[in-house]
Amino acid sequence: MMRRAALRLCALSKELLIPGRGLTQGSQDPGKQGIFHIQEACSSVHVNHGVCVRDKLREIVGASTNWKDHVKAMEERKLLYSFLAKSQKELPPRRMKDSYIEVLLPLGSEPELREKYLTVQNTVRFGRILEDLDSLGVLVCYMHTKNDSLKMSPLSIVTALVDKIDMCKKSLSPEQDIKFSGHVSWVGKSSMEVKMKMFQLHGNEFCPVLDATFVMVARDAENKGPAFVNPLIPGNVEEEELFRQGELNKGKRIAFSSTSLLKMAPSAKERNTIHEMFLSTLDPKTISFQSRVLPPNAVWMESTKLKSLEVCHPQERNIFNRIFGGFLMRKAYELAWATACNFSGSRSFVVAVDDIMFQKPVEIGSLLFLSSQVCFTQNNYIQVRVHSEVASLQNKEHMTTNVFHFTFMSEKEVPLVYPKTYGESMLYLDGQRHFSSMSVPVSLRKDYRVEP
Q1: How far apart are CA 211 and CA 57, in angstroms?
Q2: Residue-wise pLDDT tens digits, 386-432
Q3: DSSP state letters, 243-274
Q4: Which residues make Cβ contacts (< 8 Å) with residue 47, sequence separation at least 6?
Q5: Beta strands 178-187; 191-202: pairing state
Q6: What is the pTM of this model?
Q7: Is 336 exposed, middle or buried (0-12, 13-18, 19+ CB in 10 A)?
Q8: Using an 8 Å Cβ cutoff, are 12 and 182 in contact?
Q9: What is the SS3 assignment for 441?
Q10: pLDDT (tens digit per residue) in 303-354
């Protein structure tokens, strides 16, 4: 029986070559690819080649697979401080190809793996895909910053932001292999932008399914402060464009943050929108601001809420003994999907994820409170916001850790959502902004099926 592995991905990178493990560069031709298996706790599948992403990450940072040994493992990482660079100039520059890796998720060739990704509608669980993207993003950054002279990396690389995930008009079948690819596309002093793509096998070709942009940050050996990372040098015109886009993305994030409704008042156009919505809900039978009625085909925002509670067990820890960010994304997504379906009265399908900021790590043993709410709708689109906060058993004070934004599409047109309070009005405008930032509105097709 195989040892337990919390994640399911297997690296195919040429850059990860380790004697005896037979890792090879991935190929678009499935007939030429080696078979790389996903490890599961109770699987009897024999692993011939490859190494699981989660196992590779543990190896890179020296993390223990046993919870009882985690304190000792973290103590050993304190010895790595002397290997941290004092400035970025000390570190050799890297190319994008240095961090490029491909990963195979063999849903078609490994039926034993399929059930963990399977929905009752016989589609692929998008929440599991979010977990896999998070792990892949971290591994990509370790490839960018690797030092061949060191057995363990002195860096602690964590997810800072999910900038954008856009879905393509392709079906996700649980019976066909999935391939991921990723590389670092932009670098600051301690931050790295990672571009990832997902493909699924159709016939003899891997077809694009998803594009994702994550921002990762490097911290010291104990994850207590920032650390420098290798600079990135574009190797050709295409890479120069990717790097330039990374700079633009950084500027957009700064601009978006500076105009946040938590910092600045809404624009004149947005204020007019809210005032017109307010006027449309006044009861014409009374001359009062207090008497409110809903227009036809509309619901109050407050009635769209769903909540959940998670106990954060050691099983869901990451390699630094905090709760795995992919787990948080999966739980938030599944609650958001349920919220969208409950609101629309029909199946809903994710089309975009954006601006997931990891504000605070979640400790093992915490109570995780998730609150989901529809904050904006248009035609058959549903914008859902999930607020995440934690509290310890000893301290009942709640602290925000994440805010998640998901865009769904329903099979039918959905009601308009109306705010009652000023706070809900700000949620409405924030949802409208995130919806408007979606790259290109997609059209629902029968072959487009991505569920929790």
Answers
A1: 23
A2: 999 998 877 778 989 999 999 999 988 999 999 999 999 999 999 99
A3: HHHHHHHHHHHHHHHHT-TTTSPPPHHHHHHH
A4: 2, 37, 39
A5: antiparallel
A6: 0.82
A7: buried
A8: no
A9: coil
A10: 999 999 999 888 888 878 788 888 999 999 999 999 999 999 988 989 999 8
